[in-house]
Amino acid sequence: MSIQKQTVAATVAAIADGSISAADVVSHYNEHIANSESTIAAWEHHDPHLAVEQAKRLDEQPSGGTLQGIPVGLKDIFDTVDFPTEYGSPIHEGRQPTQDSVVTEKLKAAGSVIMGKTVTTEFAFFNPSRTRNPHNKNYSPGGSSSGSAAAVAAGHIPLAVGSQTGGSVIRPASFCGVFGYKPSRGLISRRGVLETSTTLDHVGVFARNIDDIATLTDAISAYDPEDRASYKEPRPSIATQLQTKPASSPSIVWFDMPYSDRYSEDANAAFEGLLSKLDGSITREKAPAEFSSYLDAHKAIYDFEIVRALDNEITNHWDQLSDSVKPIFETAKNRTEAEYLEAMEIRKSAINWFADFHQQHDAMLTPSAVGEAPLMGSTGDPVCCTIFSLTGVPCINLPLLEGKNSLPIGVQLVGGLKQDHRLMSHAAQLLSNNGLNTPI
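Given the sequence above, the corresponding structure tokens read:
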């Protein structure tokens, strides 16, 4: 079996028994990057020689980690001592961290090879990046984790790390046809990562299959007392849970969302086709009326926090900000503390609603995006993801559907807070029980 069709665990095992070297694996992916990077533009910084040198060191002194010799890409908002971290902005061009982010440290400890930094939109926000969708170069890969999703979809790397504050993991995963995972808030440390919203920021991951998502998530998750969102509760191994067959089928609900009028016609037809195929496996209900207020609360919190997190850039480097974000920041500055506090109260009620829901049901199934990827020049509509970023519940993109332009459309499975291991198991079971295939 080719390296690209193997799971990460299988590749790690092959490296361990000497069937292949880490240097061979890295060289394989370096070749794939060289073949298509000029048209996809997924990488902000990629050093093929440094990657091979990392791999050779691992071959000489194996780490014994779960990612031994596995190439990984990091969104260019994660601090790395080996590469610049520039946040997708000319304001921070050449910025060289002196300390790795916690995620970077954990990746290295697990034996991975950091191939470089993937392209992010400006400050992981609204302004589209130069990265193109590997399925069709005229279309967007989404954002803000555009390079991470595109690099995995293009076969440049098996694993990538990104972030989500609105819909920046799930949406690009949907557009690029890969698995994307936004874990529970606090599962993975955000220390050493650009902050745009302390309430809403999440670290997320991309891979070609659920097994690899589980392996990567397990490797980088841990309690961090210096991240206020991090929690002390146990983090059961997701990879181990995947090996345990559940005693019964999960209870899954599909909600007809208040924003369903924003779904494209072909996406809506694809969703209805999927629901027909799943008939009997899931329950269909109308979403509660309060979901609309959750969307408004997310925007109010994001507006209020991002202009404070980026105060230095907005105050001192306004001319270096893109024309795309300036009017958004101007509007966001007008958010009052009263609006913010009201939105935070709504967030609390939303978290409670989801806690009650997951006492009765295992998961929620919804669209990952309103349709296929848009043309270049847009990152797409994040509406399908924002409620779950607001509440911090875990969600995974399943690349199951296709639109009128033969581009991917994902569906999103949403689990209970701090129940990531169960969500991944339910996702695997949903795919298996219903004979659902993915393009991976």
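The chain is about 40% helix and 15% strand. Try to locate this feature in the token string yourself.
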